[in-house]
Design goal:
Elements lengths: L1 H11 L9 E5 L10 H16 L4 E3 L22 E5 L6 H9 L4 E9 L5 H4 L3 E7 L2 E2 L16 E5 L13 H13 L4 E4 L15 H9 L3 E4 L2 H9 L4 E5 L6 H9 L4 E3 L5 H12 L1 H17 L7
Parallel strand pairs: 1-2, 1-3, 3-4, 4-5, 7-8, 7-9, 9-10, 10-11
Antiparallel strand pairs: 5-6
Helix pairs in contact: 1-2, 7-10
């Protein structure tokens, strides 16, 4: 795939000045577009191929997704010889505006879907190497063979926005807001791990055993729910826990019983505190502590007080 992509790009970019830079674009470049994992990986594959071939290039990103990176607005047309459009459908007003802005550049599309051969979005490119046309597959999607980078941990997130029974003691909204903005900045793969079960909604587990299977695959659980904490520890997974009730309630009570230390009172919640317990949960000490709590929980049924 790499050799094929390198050769394809070498052919698509001809004629090319020896030092003429290339601007890599895609739907990920548009302010009002969306950034998908597939598009981002396709862009990585193309940029890697250009790098291997010694072709100077930049990649333009939506400022909404990647503030601080080069945007289309900052990528002056006179600075580039070629514009490469990567992945996605060649359709829509954003593509037309790309043609207008970079009218002085040679424009090439690669790994794209062509819906209408005669559409101005398509004919505006000097060359098009499509992955599919009229439903026919023509080349393997670029994302499939893109270089993968090391990834962070898999983190489950189980939050509750309810629990109205706590009345004025509820700190749930602030807890969710702080955790949400903090989690968005962490280098990790996040998955919602709602403890609710449902026999019809595909987004939720159908059975408790399915939920345990999900939790067992996590590297960490971040939660303000009692059972988010308990079931993570039941599977030997560290839990970074916030008690969302002012003054503490069932979360803190059960954490104390289990002697699980990574619990933050909602009144003390801050990014610095979250950072500290995050590091501890991933440390050897945190991992070992979670495994010990798993053993404790599995034995706890034998030590219940007599009724």
């Amino acid at each position: 795939m790499r050799q094929g992509l390198d050769a394809a790009l070498d052919e698509l970019l001809r004629p090319r000045a020896s030092t003429g830079p290339v601007l890599v674009t895609g739907w990920f470049s548009f302010q009002d577009g969306e950034v998908t994992a597939g598009d981002a990986l396709a862009a990585r594959a193309v940029c890697d191929a250009l790098r291997r071939s010694g072709v100077p290039h930049d990649c333009a990103w939506s400022p909404g997704y990647a503030p601080g990176e080069l945007s289309l607005e900052e990528a002056a047309p006179e600075s580039y010889e070629h514009v490469l459009f990567v992945c996605g459908p060649v359709h829509g007003p954003q593509i037309l505006r790309l043609h207008e802005r970079y009218a002085s550049c040679r424009r090439t599309a690669i790994g794209v879907s062509v819906l209408d051969e005669r559409a101005p979005e398509v004919t505006g490119f000097h060359r098009v190497l499509a992955r599919d046309r009229a439903g026919a597959g023509l080349m393997a999607d670029l994302a499939g063979a893109a270089r993968a980078q090391p990834v962070g941990p898999l983190v489950g997130v189980a939050l509750t926005h309810g629990q109205g029974e706590y009345g004025s003691r509820r700190g749930h909204e602030r807890v969710a807001a702080v955790l949400g903005s903090w989690l968005a900045a962490q280098d990790c793969a996040r998955v919602e791990a709602d403890t609710r079960l449902d026999r019809h909604a595909w987004q939720l587990c159908r059975t408790a055993d399915q939920y345990l299977s999900l939790v067992g695959r996590l590297d960490l659980m971040v939660t303000d729910r009692l059972h988010g904490m308990v079931l993570a520890l039941r599977m030997g997974v560290p839990a970074l826990v916030v008690d969302p009730v002012r003054g503490g309630a069932k979360v803190s009570a059960q954490a104390g019983l289990l002697r699980w230390p990574a619990v933050i009172a909602c009144e003390a919640l801050s990014a610095d505190t979250l950072d500290r317990w995050w590091a501890w949960c991933f440390s050897a000490a945190g991992q070992a502590a979670a495994r010990r709590r798993q053993t404790l929980l599995l034995r706890s049924a034998d030590s219940l007080p007599a009724g």
